[in-house]
Amino acid sequence: MEFKSISCAFESLDLNMLKDAVKTKYNDATPLCYLHSYGCQQNVSDGEKLKGLIAKSGFSFTSDDALADLIVINTCAVRENAHERVFGRLGELKHLKEKNKDLIICVCGCMAQQKHVAEKIKESYPHVSLVFGTFAYSDFYKMLYEVIVSGRRVFNIEEKQSEIAEDVFQVRSSDFKAYVSIMYGCNNFCTYCIVPYVRGRERSRTVDAVVDEVKGLVRDGYKEITLLGQNVNSYAYGFPELLRRLNDIEGDFWIRFMSSHPKDATNELIDAIIDCDKVCSHLHLPVQSGNDEILQRMNRRYTVDKYLETVEYARKRCGDFSFSTDIIVGFPGESYEQFCDTKALLEKVKFDNVYSFVYSKREGTKAAELEDKVSVKQKGLWLRELLLMQHEITEKWLGRFVGKTLKVLAESAKKQDGLLTGHSYENIIVEFEGDKKLIGSFVNVKITNALNWALFGEIIR
Ligand code: SF4
Which residue minimizes the CA distance to atom 1 of ligand 1? Predict the structure, then answer.
């Protein structure tokens, strides 16, 4: 199957042509779109940009897929179970298409960018009308127009490095927390990761473009700005400098960012985080393994010692600096002894939070071809061992905050007990009693208790 030949027939398209086509198809009523994004923050942010394009085409949004005229499934390719969930979801949507022949079902994002996935959808899910990958967002109006006007199925997974579009209208899912992409793509080719194959090479936005977007968000009342990139440390115009520029923007807000690659985590980055009061005092630094041989086979290009030097530098400048990390358990060929090196690293660093997963094979990556003798069940037991150990470390380590007052962004109210919950400046979950009206604002919370996943406290007025 040749996808490159399946491109859009409408090479130049005025947005008004699309809006007219939408009006005609839906008899001047406003059609509804249901959009769901799987996976990481970058994908959620892509979904918000896509919602902007869809809104401009004349659609409103619904959270009920049964009411929708357009269903968009924005997929993630990082983990195997995400694949299974998407195919399961597409199977379910068949019934909605049977009830409503005019329903347009669209699959996009990282998973759709993979040729074997697009082929599978083409053959096995005929109720899906539009499939496009991560390189085709700029063609969205043309693709939707073609589906609406011609009724043909459109597949667009051609790889093309296009210029980054600026001033993109986005429909953001929160009115106090915002994602700002500062770069796209990745050049690192870690052997387990599919991202460089589905999101292309690194492209950075200019400093001025990022600063302007953040200024606009602060003016609109956003309190938390999260800068996004597959590896923000390789931002082409200097990431520590960008943080310092953003810190100079006036207003009551703070800045987070993700993700950072340990090979590029410099002392300048740590200095910028600690020096800039609006940059949250926390670094998510995915180490993946505590064994140099495994790190080499993952093509991570740093050693355990280099990682520890970064941690030591930060803790020298700020004794209880907060780190979190990602761990892959059971990388192909990993022995129990090598896994124990990861446990030893966790003991040394004392992370506030560890996101750990059993290795998940991604078709098309180098690691997928490596011999893997340890069973999934065994890897599951290793994971459990690691989590139990980390729970103890977290509980003790979070105890350093008891008695202190932390700045917290109140984010939501829990259904079970009505407690407000949010994240502190150090990126720790904090729960406390308070009025729901506080959601979306900063509060000071005196910490009274620490468990292995959160802090608890009382608001200080
Ligand atoms: S840095 Fe490695 S893990 Fe992160 S997106 Fe790039 S290839 Fe994937």
Answer: 188
